[in-house]
Amino acid sequence: MSGILLLISLIILGFSFLIFRNIEKAALISNIFLIIGLYFAFIEKAIVKVIPMLYYWHVAIICLFFIFQIGHLIYHKSNAKLANQINQVFLLIFGGLIIFNGILAIPKAFQTIATKAQNQVELDQKIITPTSDNQMGNLPNVYYFIFDEYAGFDSVQRYCNYDNSAFYDALEELGFVTSKHSVNDTIDTFTEIPNLLQLSKVNSIEMTAADKKANLKDPYLFRLMKEHGYTINALDSNNYQFMDVNSADMHLSIEFVSTYGTFKSSIIQNTAYYPFYGSEDREVEISNMLNMFNYAIDSSKKTQSNLFTVGYFNFPHVPYLFDEQGNKTKDSDRLNLRDTAPYLAQFKYASKKILEMATEIIANDPEAIIIIQSDHGYRYPSHLHFWYGIDQFDLAVESIYERNILNAVYYQGEDIYIDNYSGINTLITVLNKLLDVDLQMVD
């Protein structure tokens, strides 16, 4: 970031010098240009408060006109000595602010580093040395991953005319049992994920958003696993908080880095560049998604028993970040819900990453139990209806396809019956066998 600002400053200075033929005058107009550019958002707010009908580009033109007028005065009315004196004033003011803010930031930076290091030590110790609740004998590591809007076999075939048999065959070759025709009750993530994590139908489609989110707290699945000696290792996508990290012993989200809220964003959000800010966050979104897969794989190297790794992936759900080769998509496809091609491309890449992750986990932890599901299928008819007002499909007829989920279980390579089971009943089946409990199936 600092390198880009320096380069821009040098370009402006060089261009100004070609016009003024005097370094002091060129430096002065460059300073004024940069100050207006860096604090443009404040200037815009002040002008719009006085003249509300103005927009960004109006204010930008006003500022450019102002800079041109100041440049005209400097060129014709100012001398090199005066320009140099004004430059020195700018240097004292802004140099002093940089030093002052830098001094204030040093203690916080050291504290952040120390806290992060201490947290890592505590997390590692929690895995290595079981707590008093973790004395019930060694149980295999369990991995449970939810992929938002990963279409079940019937769903992707109906809406994308795509046969996903190769993916299911690859899972079965690894030792998974799969169910191609499983469905959940709804196509609403905020209904389905709390139900999965609570192992009960605590949410319904009619409930308010606030009530649905409330049921994400203190999930019964976490409590049950802790009661049987498991350490909870949660990972969640950056923009959602479906996993109650406060109920987990460790979580990935502390490792995620977004440009928002950082030093970089604190600078950019006040500059003339602010309307375009966020495009670089696509790189962050991509990095975060890949980091989740890497973290899941790395979790299989932490310990040989009693670790429950549970994760929510906002993938292949929109935004469409990847094409099927894993390259970055075009900007026009990122939020394109109208066409099936962007979804299918990301769906194919998600399939590839899921297989890579499952293969690595099994190689590192062959005695593991892995459950891979989605909350619902591809909601293409609903996207057309609710986002574009296109009633191409009868939503009542399409419901079963939109609810068709990914549902696969690796139980140490053994057979386990999950055919046509919902996500909740699949979880219950696995937990009953693993923990020797008698959880009741849900209707």
Total number of beta strands = 7
* Mean pLDDT figure: 87
Give the N-to-C terminal Cα separation: 55 Å
Instruction: Count the DSSP helices.
Output: 16
Query: CATH H level of the largest domain: which superfamily?
Result: Alkaline Phosphatase, subunit A
The SS-based structural class is alpha/beta
Give the low-confidence spans: 130-135, 254-262
The description of the largest β-sheet is: 7 strands, mixed
Shape: elongated
Biggest sheet: strands side by side, in what order? Answer: 2-7-6-1-5-3-4
State the order of secondary-structure elements, H for helix, E for strand. HHHHHEHHEHHHEEHHEHEHHEH
CATH topology of the largest domain: Alkaline Phosphatase, subunit A
The CATH architecture designation of the largest domain is: 3-Layer(aba) Sandwich
**Helical percentage:** 40-55%
Overall domain count: 2
Give Rg in angstroms. 28 Å
Assigned CATH class of the largest domain: Alpha Beta
Describe the structure concisely for a colleague:
Helix content is 54%, strand content 7%. The protein is an alpha/beta fold and 443 residues long. A seven-stranded mixed sheet has the order 2-7-6-1-5-3-4, with helices on both faces.
Notes on the structure:
- A 7-stranded mixed sheet has the order 2-7-6-1-5-3-4, sandwiched between helices.
- With 443 residues, the protein is of the alpha/beta class.
- The model is unreliable at 130-135 and 254-262 (pLDDT under 50).
- The chain folds into 2 domains: 2-101, no CATH class; 136-435, Alkaline Phosphatase, subunit A.
- Helices cover 54% and strands 7% of the residues.
- The protein is built from 16 helices and 7 strands.
- The protein has helices spanning 2-20, 23-38, 40-50, 56-77, 80-128, 153-160, 165-174, 189-198, 209-214, 220-227, 263-268, 281-299, 341-364, 380-388, 395-402, 423-435, and strands spanning 142-147, 177-178, 231-236, 250-251, 307-313, 369-373, 407-411.
- The relative contact order is 0.13.
- Helix 2 (23-38) crosses helix 5 (80-128).
